[in-house]
Design a protein that fits this description.
469 residues; 66% helix; mainly alpha; single chain; 2 strands
């Protein structure tokens, strides 16, 4: 049978103003960012074949959607490019806002823990279409007391809630030290087996039910954050959405804001600035901001500022940054902050402020804030420290300060070689090599030494075998 030219895809490529080679380059960038190395070498001949009517296999249609969504600054669907899904959907319930959260957890956890299904799960792509948050009716419905009859016999009390909370704190501190690529498999196993059973148990009262759903939401959020840090963006998104549903079921507005803030952070980092800003704005609506503690308000506010900066809204971004500073300054030891905000301090605020300033084109102030962040961060936060230094080196290189950038990047490698398993930190090494490329043949000793060290690190690092703990 003769192939039928894909006119929808051809029209979108024309709308994007892309040649086949430019489309292939954008496709490969998205594949690399999603840790899908098998798709990172697509060439213009592949694009021509797809336009000509050959159907791309596996995750390629979703990668193409994401690349076009970024270029056109709107959500592009599979149907719109004439490549609707024909294969089985993996853990699809996690991306559906109206799906029951326990059912979604069952599907997602089973896929994440089974080796064969996890391979398919890892080949899925971040979905811009899933970033549209439902309206107020959905939140109100989710927060109502559940009429469901418990499916398990286990009686669930506050001691069970406390145990989940304690383990979440332990995993979170490990994430800060070692990165999201270390230990997430153990977290998912606990979430899927123990916590899922607790969610199906017989609660002592309605307060305990809400508290357990909040605790499960925080653990699911942490699994998402660790996957995000490890550049497993599609998996991260599914856990973030699951966490929002669980927090909504708990009626915990500040926790919902915290998770939506993480989703905004991810969207902005992946180039979906408008969607990220929308998520950030939802995260600070109503009680999500009003009922939050000062430290959490500052965290919500600074990511909102990043969304404003990434979409060119300079003055509102500056006002949001100033408000975030005021919020953090009002945090005192007398105010009990939730455990999930333990990492957010002056150093974290400086890091996110620097990212906003960088996106606004104020590189001198961005460098100052990245330095401030690196100089004030505690030793327990090695992963984020490496990410900050990576960004600082890139800003220094952009200003032509090659020796300073090399010195900074040497500190990144110092941290990585101590056992950090983080896709974001590893990306800093890859970005470093790309930025050093024009200087490699100039005989600059600092560049030569750093390049050799980076190559040795990337060659011998145990990657990504730690993604399952």
């Amino acid at each position: 049978m003769a192939r039928v030219r894909n006119e929808r895809l051809a029209a979108l490529l024309a709308e994007a103003g892309w040649s086949r080679a430019q489309a292939a380059s954008a496709f490969s960038r998205v594949a690399a960012e999603n840790n899908l190395s098998g798709w990172a070498r697509v060439g213009r001949s592949h694009i021509s074949m797809w336009v000509g009517g050959t159907r791309p296999s596996g995750s390629a249609p979703l990668i193409l959607c994401q690349a076009l969504s970024r270029r056109l600054k709107r959500v592009v669907t599979l149907d719109e490019i004439g490549l609707g899904l024909t294969g089985p959907a993996i853990a699809q319930e996690a991306l559906e806002w109206h799906a029951d959260p326990v059912s979604a957890l069952t599907d997602l956890g089973r896929s994440d823990l089974d080796a064969n299904r996890r391979t398919l799960l890892g080949q899925t792509v971040y979905s811009a279409a899933a970033l549209v948050v439902p309206g107020q009716d959905w939140w109100q419905t989710m927060a109502k007391p559940s009429p469901d009859i418990p499916t398990g016999r286990q009686r669930v009390g506050r001691s069970d809630v406390a145990t989940v909370q304690e383990l979440t704190v332990a995993f979170s501190r490990m994430d800060q030290r070692c990165g999201g690529g270390h230990g997430r498999g153990a977290l998912v196993q606990y979430l899927y087996s123990d916590v899922r059973s607790l969610l199906c148990g017989r609660f002592q009262n309605e307060d305990v039910r809400r508290e357990m759903h909040s605790a499960a939401a925080e653990l699911s959020y942490l699994s998402g954050w660790m996957a995000f840090d490890n550049a497993e963006h599609a998996i991260a998104q599914k856990y973030f959405l699951l966490a929002v549903k669980l927090s909504a079921r708990a009626g915990n507005a500040p926790l919902s804001g915290h998770i939506l803030r993480a989703m905004a952070h991810q969207a902005i980092d992946l180039g979906f600035a408008n969607e990220g800003l929308n998520l950030a704005e939802v995260s600070i609506q109503g009680e999500r901001y009003k009922a939050a503690t000062p430290r959490e308000k500052a965290l919500l506010g600074v990511i909102h500022a990043r969304g404003l900066a990434a979409t060119g809204r300079r003055q509102p971004a500056i006002r949001a940054l100033l408000q975030a500073e005021d919020d953090l300054a009002s945090a005192t030891s007398e105010i009990l902050e939730p455990n999930r905000t333990f990492f957010f301090s002056e150093a974290s605020l400086a890091h996110e402020t620097a990212c906003a300033l960088r996106d606004m084109g104020d590189h001198a102030q961005a460098i100052r804030q990245f330095r401030r962040s690196a100089n004030t961060r505690g030793a327990a936060f090695k992963r984020t420290h490496a990410v900050t230094l990576g960004y600082l080196g890139s800003e220094q290189m952009a200003g032509g300060r090659v020796d300073e950038a090399c010195a900074t990047w040497n500190r990144v490698l110092d941290a990585m070689e101590e056992g950090i398993y983080s896709g974001r930190a590893r990306q800093a090494v890859l970005d470093m090599r790309a930025l050093l490329s024009p200087y490699r043949r100039r005989g600059i000793p600092a560049v030569t030494e750093l390049e050799a060290r980076a190559v040795a690190y990337l060659k011998h690092v145990d990657w990504p075998t730690h993604t399952q703990g």
